[in-house]
Design a protein that fits this description.
Length: 738
């Protein structure tokens, strides 16, 4: 976004008075009503039900399914086809949206007027919306891909687009939201409902349902209608973005490949809530089953929301980009992710996602399916990475993050104020914005009050004449506090990986970083630091998308390692020279090393000898030790969760076990370590994190799972090096956490 657009500033869409300046008495008296009346109605939305049901794709799926059911009985075939066609029409009625432009207008007026009952503001960037509006005029479909944080997400995008006279998209929703009365409202707002599992039978694809969904979305796209769906599948339970699902995105890509559409604009969208509106996810993090959505549950939730305060929400729209241009670039430069997406036929743990993942795409099974899957994977990862780095941390996020990474034992207000200034500068250096303003003391106290004393308590200390804040690290409250903190951790994830690698290679521990300097030089080998850092990224690859698909992990880590030298975390052995020459040559040597590390022409350097390069860790400086400790604590809970899973697998997986039993025992063991004080980070026993660690080991083919006798079984891979790899990873993570 250029400087001119950025200078347009933020807008609170709940306050329309700024848009009605120099208006008459009526507008000043009834601003929301006058504003809503002046907004234009969108043109009529198409009804494509008939064309979907009679499309060749659906008719072929019906016939193939009927033949499988009748098993060659030609006399029964016509009757079975007629029955499937009837079921097909019924499925479409349950799936389709019934968009009403008038209802969108009425709902937008209602939300604009009454969201302020429990939200201070809904902030959007005017410059971002100008970019989206310009893109929407190009006569190609707009594909809005938000990260999913709350049920309010469903209508916030439509509401914001209405404020800028941008046509509302059709919104994909999981059928868990297909609740009486509320489903009708969602359909009128553009919602269409899809199964949480596309196939009712795990071992057999529902070809008719897949064809219906594929054709419905393709028809909408071919008529120029926009789509909105949550690329992660479901709401995050951890506050971090989840690994994206490619099922619905594959429909858009296939529509482009089949020339159904000439292009589409992809718009990543991200939400920042100061306080979780949907309630916390502590129940699920403790290993208890999710409570199913019901009509009464939804009504109670709405009443609860209206009688509480949830602070502000910030919504960021990343710059729209052309699908056509992305596909051309992605084909020219194939994506090589840290681990490949789960291939078809292999199972992975269920996270309650609303949409299919990469192992359950809607793609056809032609010869190019695998390459197209990788294109979809690249596009999905690019969207999530972009969204992550567009997310503006709110006040509650920063305070929770600082308390869990720097001040787990509590902190005085004066010191926390300094740290808030420091963390804002760090984020600005990473080109990240923050979603609040004001004096730091006021921001801290506001965040503490909003989160509540059950998460952050405060106590006046007479002897120090200052207020002291204490984070609640007990179960399950720490899970909720961690949710807020994780909104910031993404920005420091890769830097944290490098810090952990430095500690491992320097034989340092968190305990060493908290004590005074020992006077012993700690040196690390450059290539070994990079090697271990890449290995850590591989182990925790399900936690973050560390870099965009167009970048190389080794090169990015090498460049970041050089930045550690410029930040004086590390130093290199330099020959003696006078101060002036040393100062003049410092930047040049740094640039030479960086250029070498980023050199993509490997053939020119092939066979050349490069001397081992050592770095000295500047542990004699207290500020460097403090920074390294902070960086390690960013990933500490994640690394400990993976360590717990690896150790438990080594001890328990001598033979196959039912996956449900394994996870239940694993959760109990992890919580037991926390309660007995044997864990460094109490949030490491969160069930979602443990499941993510198990899935990582499945992706690395160290663990496997399969369905048998109505149970999903989990076991250690029969590859000879599986147990050795687990032991190696356990040793690596134990060193980092010692």
């Amino acid at each position: 976004m250029n400087g001119g657009l950025r200078d347009m500033g933020m807008r609170n869409i709940l306050d329309v008075r700024t848009e009605l300046l120099n208006s008459g008495l009526l507008a000043r008296s009834f601003p929301t009503e006058v504003y809503a009346i002046n907004r234009p109605l969108f043109k009529t939305y198409p009804n494509i039900t008939r064309s979907v049901i009679t499309s060749p794709r659906v008719l072929i799926a019906i016939e193939e399914t009927a033949r499988q059911i009748t098993k060659g009985d030609m006399d029964a075939l016509p009757k079975q086809i007629a029955l499937l066609e009837k079921n097909c029409a019924s499925t479409m009625r349950r799936m389709k949206a019934s968009v009403s432009s008038f209802f969108i207008k009425v709902t937008a007026w209602f939300l604009t007027k009454y969201l302020s009952k429990f939200l201070h503001s809904v902030q959007v960037c005017r410059g971002q919306m100008m970019m989206v509006k310009e893109a929407s005029k190009r006569n190609v479909p707009m594909i809005y891909l938000p990260l999913h944080r709350s049920h309010l997400d469903y209508i916030l995008v439509t509401l914001i687009l209405w404020h800028y006279d941008i046509r509302a998209p059709f919104v994909a929703a999981g059928d868990n939201m297909n609740i009486p009365f509320f489903n009708l409202l969602m359909r009128w707002l553009g919602g269409f409902f899809i199964r949480r599992r596309l196939d009712s039978n795990r071992n057999k694809k529902d070809m008719i349902y897949r064809a219906l969904l594929h054709e419905y979305m393709t028809k909408l796209l071919s008529q120029g209608e926009g789509l909105e769906f949550f690329i992660e599948g479901g709401r995050t339970r951890t506050g971090k973005s989840m690994i994206p699902k490619g099922g619905l995105l594959s429909v858009v890509v296939e529509a482009f490949n089949a020339s159904e559409i000439s292009d589409a604009f992809i718009v990543p969208v991200t939400f920042s809530y100061e306080k979780i509106i949907d309630g916390n996810y502590c129940r699920e993090q403790m290993g208890l089953p999710k409570i199913k959505e019901t009509f009464m549950g939804a009504v109670k939730a709405i009443f609860r929301v209206f009688f509480n305060t949830y602070g502000s929400v910030r919504v960021d729209f990343a710059q729209p980009f052309s699908l056509k241009e992305f596909m051309l670039h992605a084909k020219a430069y194939p994506y090589h992710p840290i681990t490949l997406p789960t291939p078809p036929g292999r199972h992975s743990l269920d996270y309650g996602a609303s949409y299919p993942n990469f192992s359950s795409t809607l793609l056809s099974t032609n010869g190019e399916a695998e390459s197209t899957r990788m294109l979809v994977k690249a596009l999905a990862d690019h969207v999530v990475y972009t969204s992550d780095h567009c997310t503006a941390p709110m006040a509650t996020h920063l305070i929770a993050f600082l308390l869990l990474t720097k001040y787990r034992e509590g902190v005085y207000l004066r010191e926390l104020t300094k740290s808030v200034h420091w963390i804002i500068r760090e984020l600005q250096a990473l080109h990240a914005d923050v979603g609040f303003c004001g004096q730091s003391e006021h921001v801290i106290l506001y965040a503490q009050e909003l989160l509540g004393k059950h998460l952050i308590s405060k106590k006046w200390q007479e002897e120090d004449n200052d207020l002291k804040l204490f984070p609640n690290l007990s179960l399950p409250s720490v899970f909720e506090l961690s949710y807020y903190a994780n909104a910031v951790s993404t920005h420091f994830a890769l830097e944290s990986v490098l810090a952990v690698s430095i500690l491992i290679n320097g034989n340092l521990s968190l305990f060493h970083l908290l004590t005074s300097a020992t006077g012993v030089e700690k040196k690390v080998l450059r290539e070994k630091v990079l090697e271990v850092a890449e290995e850590i990224c591989t182990i925790i690859h399900n936690e973050f998308i560390f870099l965009p698909p167009c970048e190389n992990l080794h090169s990015v880590l090498a460049g970041m390692l050089e930045s550690f030298v410029s930040k004086e975390i590390l130093s290199t052995e330099e020959s003696a020279m006078d101060d002036e020459l040393a100062f003049a040559g410092k930047d040049r040597r740094w640039a030479d090393r960086l250029a070498l590390s980023l050199d993509v022409d490997e053939e020119e350097n092939e066979g050349s000898y490069v001397a081992d390069q050592y770095y000295q860790i500047n542990t004699e400086r207290s500020d460097i030790r403090e920074r390294l400790h902070f960086l390690v604590c960013v990933l500490g809970p994640i690394l400990e969760a993976h360590f717990l899973v690896i150790k438990f697998a080594l001890e328990e997986l001598h033979t196959e076990l039912p996956e449900e039993d394994f996870m239940k025992s694993l959760g109990g063991c992890a919580r037991g370590k926390v309660e007995s004080g044997l864990a460094l980070f109490s949030e490491s026993c969160a069930m979602i994190g443990l499941k993510s660690a198990v899935k990582s080991l499945q992706d690395l083919e160290i663990l496997y799972s399969y369905d048998g006798a109505n149970l999903r079984m989990l076991g250690l891979s029969e590859q000879q090096d599986s147990r050795a790899m687990l032991e190696h990873y356990a040793s690596l993570l134990e060193t980092a956490l010692s």
